[in-house]
Amino acid sequence: MASNIKSLKSDASKAMVSEKAKLVQTDPLPPIVAMDLSKDYNFVKKLFFYWDEGIALHRGQPKPEPEDTKYVLFDTDCGGFNNIRMGFEYMVMMAYAMNRTLVFPPPHGWYLIDWGPRKRMKSADTSGLSDYPDYFVNEHMQMAVPTISTADFLARQGTNLKVPEKYIKMHEEKSAGRNWELRMAYKREIGNRAKDEGWGLGWGIGGHVLYWPDAKSVEQKNPVDRNLVSGRRPVEYGPVKDLTTVHFPSCLNEDSQTGTWRYLGQVANMIFFDDPEKDKDLKRMLRDHVHYLPEVFEIAAEVVSKIGLFNYAAYHVRRNDLQYKDSFIGAEKSYQNTEKLLQPGENIYVATDETSDKFFDVFPRNNHKTYFWHDFFGDKAKPDLKISRPVNRKLIGCIEQVICAGARIFFGTRSSTFSAYITRLRGYFKAPDTNSYLHNNQHSGNPETDKLKVGHRSGNTYMLEFSSMWELD
């Protein structure tokens, strides 16, 4: 009996093994679905936080000021936000090279952000103020360049500089109107004093280049491409290095030309060093330490993860808030100019200040699903796309730059510094195509020739980015 039971168990065991074998042989495994990382918010956000690796090297520690602290003062550019950004980049890089503390100007209203003729981001309130930490992460800047406010600077140096008491205490003024008047008067008085007394530096990028440590060392050790000098006059730091304070006044009345008292230009070619590694170090500093607030990239990542990272084309089409009216063309022409670089049926994101909903109908007529800001935010948002996270009105332009930078290919508007910065962000993101294309130009479909249609780049070009800003590793 025991033997029979053992035999039955053995037969049953063999049968079960045989049945399992049949299941293994005949039942297909469920399909393995690969995760589409292009639509994964966390993946997109991580890629957008391009500065993380560089910032981690500092372990959260700010750069200490030396005992004999020296300062860089500057004025906010009188143009729109991206002109302001470009001038600010210049100042941070100068402070870094000079090993000086950077002093933020008194907060005031920024053109086309807080006031001015705006078709988008409109607000009836024109009394708003802007400050650089409202847009850029000050804690990350301070790891490379110490920064302080004008109020702090005047508390330290106001008496030494013989600044009138009314300016030293202007931040205590409770009247908004009076406070604004004092800030503007301070800007004019200090700017003109610096210019007249020799501590104001009229080194506008359009007319000057800084040789570091001096012209002789640069010419001997690392000769400069003359195309990048572009006839600009050389300046050296040596004559002013012992001054406690230097100032870069901007838009000084009749002296507001780009060549002297306006620091407007692509910072790729503003300083020439005796060692190319110093140039890369300066540009890495800018990449890692001068960037928009994280919420800009987080909100953009929400949009991009709904469309698909690098899976769409993007356009920046200026129609109103741009002084170069010859850059305005109809959407039909824009599409004709760019269609050969598009993929069939490719999704499209359009960042624009055009107010007509029908203006871009040419894109959907040609089977391109087309997205706009209002598809994701506000009362007109589509239910499947709506993002409910609150958005600071002043940051909308920055967010749209990042959305455009997340595209497979990008087309900008001629003469727009907003468009130009998108190309640099694409370089930081390692986008599949970092060429500059303009929807104003007719393209053949060959990227190698089409990328040349933006025009010749020289040292004082300021509406096109240079790949040297992101080819750093």
Question: What spatial form do the alpha-carbon principal axes imply?
Answer: globular
Q: Could you give a short account of the major beta sheet?
A: 4 strands, parallel
* Beta-strand residue percentage: 5-15%
Order of helices and strands: HHHEHEHEHHHEHHEEEHHEHEHEHEHH
Quote the average pLDDT. 90
Instruction: Kindly report how far apart the N and C termini lie.
Output: 79 Å
| Strand tally | 11
- The domain tally reads 2
Trace the largest sheet across and list its strands: 3-2-1-6
So, CATH architecture of the largest domain?
3-Layer(aba) Sandwich
Helix percentage range: 25-40%
| Rg (C-alpha, Å) | 28 Å
Specify the number of helices: 17
CATH topology description of the largest domain: Rossmann fold
List the uncertain runs: 1-26
Q: How would you classify the helix and strand content by structural class?
A: alpha/beta
CATH class of the largest domain: Alpha Beta
Q: Care to describe what's here?
A:
The chain has 2 domains: 52-289, Rossmann fold; 294-469, Rossmann fold (3-Layer(aba) Sandwich). 36% of the residues lie in helices and 9% in strands. It contains 17 helices and 11 strands. The chain has helices at 2-26, 41-48, 52-56, 81-98, 138-141, 150-157, 165-168, 176-197, 215-221, 226-229, 276-289, 294-307, 331-338, 362-365, 396-405, 417-429, 447-450; strands at 71-74, 101-103, 147-148, 208-212, 233-236, 245-248, 271-273, 312-317, 347-352, 370-371, 409-411. The strands form 3 sheets. The protein has a 4-stranded parallel β-sheet. Strands 10-9-8-11 form a 4-stranded parallel β-sheet, covered by helices on one side. The longest helix is centred in the first third of the chain and has 25 residues, at 2-26. The model is unreliable at 1-26 (pLDDT under 50).
